[in-house]
Design a protein that fits this description.
- Residues 4-179 form the Transketolase-like pyrimidine-binding domain.
- InterPro entries: THDP-binding, Transketo_C/PFOR_II, Transketolase-like_Pyr-bd, Transketolase_C.
- This is 2-oxoisovalerate dehydrogenase subunit beta.
- It holds the Pfam family Transketolase_C.
- With 326 residues, this protein is α/β, with parallel strands linked by helices.
- It has 2 domains: 2-184, Thiamin diphosphate (ThDP)-binding fold, Pyr/PP domains (Rossmann fold), CATH 3.40.50.970; 197-325, 3-Layer(aba) Sandwich (Rossmann fold).
- It has helices at residues 6-20, 44-48, 60-72, 91-98, 101-104, 134-138, 151-163, 213-226, 244-254, 269-280, 305-308, 312-325; strands at 2-4, 24-28, 53-55, 76-80, 114-119, 144-146, 168-173, 182-184, 197-200, 205-209, 231-235, 238-240, 257-264, 290-294.
- It has a 7-stranded mixed beta sheet with strand order 3-2-4-5-7-6-12, sandwiched between helices. Strands 9-11-10-13-14 form a 5-stranded mixed beta sheet, sandwiched between helices.
- Helix 8 (213-226) packs across helix 12.
- It is globular.
Length: 326
């Protein structure tokens, strides 16, 4: 067992699964010789060779098409989008083919591919490098959308994503790639998909979030505890399909919910969670649902970037508003 960063946990998971399953291949821009733009694939080409770790042209459309083709023919490709804003040329293949293959063939074929996507802001990157676009893909039938929030969950969830028989969009919050270390056992044990993780028990308010905002939610829970407020923290982890039951059980206990996400507010995935709470948990709530989100703008460059992102102070203020309203 070693204490490693989230990016190192991803490398560990890919190497583990490539040793276990010879049908697993990695492809993308600079993933081989350079080890990826964030070094997530560092060392893989040295161990597995250029036949299984493929450096592609700088052409996201080709990467996506090649990935779908490999998956349709029995391989398990892991493609890297390099940055979240580079996904858009891939959308045609991902939505029109990867997500529909099982449905189109009435179950005779599937598309067991993983698209790894460095996601989100907070690293002072230019335009197209700091987007939080997960909600776009949650609206597509046939796709799983997964986002880890720690080294341990990155390792276990990526293993599960690779083994999934259907396409998985695996968003990786790059702000926390190297933010802290955690002990990870390289035992090949996958974590379950399609379930939320309750990271902290509480009785007064439920904080629901995913990805890099999990750290802020936990810190907000610590800050609230100093004021005698008990906050339960839920890491959604698999954004689509959503494990609403875990969220509902928490809200039954606390009566209040704050949803936190980095993406723009309008039609962000938090709105879907709020809608389900309105439909299924209205009589369990004692205060209106609060959302702490990004703004309906492109993420501002550099000086205002951290002002755009949800913060501990914003989450604490939203939690206290739910308490004042009831």
């Amino acid at each position: 067992m070693a204490a490693i960063t989230l990016i190192e946990a991803l490398t560990l998971a890919m190497a583990s699964e490539m040793r276990r399953d010879p049908s697993v291949v990695v492809l993308g821009e600079d993933v081989g010789v350079n080890g990826g733009v964030f070094r997530a694939t560092s060392g893989l080409i040295q161990e597995f060779g250029a036949g299984r770790v493929l450096d592609t042209p700088l052409d996201e459309t080709t990467i996506a098409g090649l990935t779908v083709g490999l998956a349709a023919q029995g391989m398990k490709p892991i493609a890297e989008a390099q940055f979240d804003g580079f996904m858009y040329p891939m959308v045609d293949h991902v939505i029109c083919h990867a997500a529909r293959l099982r449905h189109r063939t009435r179950g005779r074929m599937s598309c067991p591919m993983v698209l790894r996507v460095p996601w989100g802001g907070g690293i002072r990157a230019p335009e197209h490098h700091s987007e939080a676009n997960e909600a776009i893909f949650t609206n597509v039938p046939g796709l799983r959308v997964v986002m880890p929030s720690s080294p341990q969950r990155a390792y276990g969830l990526l293993l599960a994503a690779i083994r999934d028989p259907d396409p998985v969009i695996f968003f990786e919050p790059k702000r926390i790639y190297r933010q802290y270390k955690e002990e990870v056992v390289d035992d090949g044990e996958a974590l379950p998909l399609d379930v939320c993780f309750v990271l902290r028990d509480g009785s007064d308010v439920t904080l629901v979030t995913w990805g890099s905002q999990v750290k802020e939610a936990l810190e907000a829970a610590d800050a609230l505890a100093k004021d005698g407020i008990s906050a339960e923290v839920i890491d959604v982890a698999t954004v689509k399909p959503l494990d609403f039951d875990t969220i509902h059980e928490s809200v039954k206990k606390t009566g209040r919910c704050v949803i936190v996400h980095e993406a723009p507010r309008t039609a962000g995935f938090g709105a879907e969670i709020a809608a389900q709470l309105a439909e299924k948990a209205m009589y369990d709530l004692v205060a209106p649902v609060e959302r702490v989100t990004g703004y309906d703008t492109h993420i501002p460059l550099f000086r205002l970037e951290m002002k755009y992102l949800p913060s501990v102070d914003k989450i604490v203020a939203a939690a206290k508003r739910t308490l004042a309203a009831s």
